[in-house]
Write a structure and sequence with these properties.
13 helices, 44% helix, 12 strands, homodimer, 434 Repressor (Amino-terminal Domain), 350 residues, alpha/beta, DNA-binding, Rossmann fold
Chain lengths: 350, 350
DNA sequence: TTGTATGCGTTATCAG
DNA sequence: CTGATAACGCATACAA
């Protein structure tokens, strides 16, 4: 009853040949006679023989599958990246095994251990907001596991990295808010130590300074769990509104935080952009359907996935260790959709 | 240089034991002396030994990974289902390998062949809108591959199935539109033969009839690619608006179609719900942030994933073939959010 | 209590 | 041109 598939041995027995002959015939080896080849190939075809990938993996010491760890797939940015990864993997005969850290270090570590007990040939990872201890990753890297970081990278580990131009994205976003007439611009971020946070915060600050606005640290808020816990965005936004001098706009520095801010702003009965300006990183299509549509900074997620997977393939398939690591920086896109324009227009009109 | 991991053989050599002794010690066999066990365990721990999962797979003839095929992960419904699957899989030591059909039969088939050349222990699948030929799936099922269908199921194949209460969801949605005062209610659906389409269409029709409204076939539109091609939703919606008697509301019968309709309605410069009523199946959180928030029918996606994975585990782990197949029907949730209320209220007021 | 031998499916290395 | 054998890492029936 149980799913029994045909093996080389079966073919050999049926045809009165040896397993090695069959193996070679199937691989179209030059040392097999045309007749034998034909015989074997036809039999294999008829009984739809497929080599057992597990046996192959054991022999070749490679699994032809790669691991991907992200905080969650139900986030448009990450699912788009995975799309990109998958499309390249697929074309190269690789399986993609996806695991979610849910922004938890423990889960990330468990997944990592699980995936890497030699069942994957390479790893693409965006680390969780909670992760401060990179020793396991470092160890893995030292042991020779091909790793490509994307989005939230670990700068101390020397390998390929793929990021969006976070600095410029944040700069553009903040500049746009300023351009629209907002002056007290707050920002809601991921935890301080995460790579993207640093880059985006730097862009935010630079834009303020370049426009003669002083950076006010009380306007900079962090969400320790990247917005995974519903209440944490609520908390920081409320804190912002309890400030003696309230902000007139918010720059949300990640996908989940953008929708989080939007939600809490709504809950508070406020309107974007009249009551408060809002712009953020977001890869959800739906932001354009809001009324008025929300301006966002979009990451080239799909392309990032493609690039990451291509780099990983390079690492996997080069026999000698690669010494020349690349950090690909893909440009972000500022989508101006009217939601942040109005304040300025109003002021000009009034 | 290359990622060399420690094996049982290494331990055996280092400790002057045989591989079988080591193997048994590691598995805590009763026939090994406490001292030897301790010795082996400590050595294994120190050198952080991990059994090679590929060798195990070869031996046990199981890979401890399952395949999941959906049309696309970047769809909140599917990513939530995958979340559910993953959480159960994770707790049971299973890997999840995800593949996307992108609503293409060819890709689905390729993925299927790829996954099932004996490297997965089971399969969870929601078939693509294009798939009409189930012979490969049937064959697979007959060979003994454990399969669980969800969402878009294949009724002819006798195995576990997990669906939402599509009939009731569609009924509720349509009834709600009627309750709000709409009368000419169109529907935009997936292709006619897909299981969910049939169920949802039946619910839609029943709601109309129960409220004394005749079913008008010219108001029923199908999207052959489930909305994957941007223009197809546009086409059918435009067709609806070119009808001699235009619809006053639309029931969108799938996630992708709901956002698609919303988008094209916007493009046409129309407002929901004043110019046209809209309700649809959707699992995106963002619909509640629209202005006014959109009423939707939500599927218990996460739970569906959990249930599907649990059923699959049952199939995988029961030695004897299961004869008693279940079709779990989980209830949908109608989220009334005000966007469809207004017409009625206006009429009552006016 | 421990060791030896065998097999899971495949390919590589020898021999013939 | 083809066949026998060993090996990949592990578990287990069988021997000792």
């Amino acid at each position: 009853m149980k799913f029994e598939a045909i093996t080389i041995k079966d073919i050999a027995r049926a045809l009165g040949l040896s397993t090695s002959t069959v193996s070679r015939a199937l691989r179209d080896s030059y040392e097999i006679s045309p007749e034998t080849k034909k015989l074997v190939l036809e039999y294999a075809e008829k009984n739809n023989y497929h080599p057992n990938p597990i046996a192959l993996s054991l022999k070749e010491r490679r699994s032809r599958s790669i691991g991907v760890i992200v905080c969650e797939i139900a986030n448009s940015y990450f699912s788009q990246v995975i799309n990109g990864i998958e499309s390249i993997a697929y074309n190269n005969g690789y399986n993609v095994i996806i695991a979610q850290s849910r922004e938890s270090f423990d889960r990330e570590l468990l997944n990592l251990q699980y995936l890497t007990s030699r069942s994957i040939d390479g790893l693409i990872i965006s680390i969780s907001t909670e992760t401060k201890d990179f020793s396991y990753l470092k160890e893995l890297h030292q042991k020779g596991m091909p790793i490509v970081f994307f989005d939230r990278i670990v700068s101390e580990i020397e390998t390929h990295k793929v990021i969006a131009d976070n600095y410029k994205g944040a700069y553009d976003a903040t500049a746009h808010l300023i351009h629209c007439g907002y002056r007290r611009i707050a920002t809601v971020s991921n935890p301080e130590l995460v790579s993207i946070t640093k880059e985006r915060l730097a862009g935010y600050k630079a834009a303020l300074r370049d426009n003669g606005i002083e950076v006010d640290d009380s306007l900079i808020k962090y969400c320790q769990h990247g917005g995974m816990i519903v209440t944490e965005v609520e908390e920081v936004v409320k804190e912002l509104f309890e400030l003696p001098q309230k902000p007139d706009a918010i720059f949300a520095s990640a996908d989940k935080l953008t929708t989080g801010c939007l939600r809490i702003i709504r809950t508070m009965g406020l309107k974007v952009p009249d009551d408060i300006g809002l712009i953020g990183f977001s890869n959800t299509d739906l932001t354009e359907l809001l009324d008025p549509p929300l301006s966002v900074i979009k990451q080239p997620a799909f392309e990032m996935g493609e690039v990451a997977m291509n780099l990983l393939l390079q690492l996997i398939e080069s026999k000698r260790p690669v010494t020349d690591f690349e950090t690909k920086v893909l440009s972000t896109e500022l989508l101006i959709r009217g939601s942040t324009k109005m304040k300025k227009e109003k002021e000009i009109a009034g």
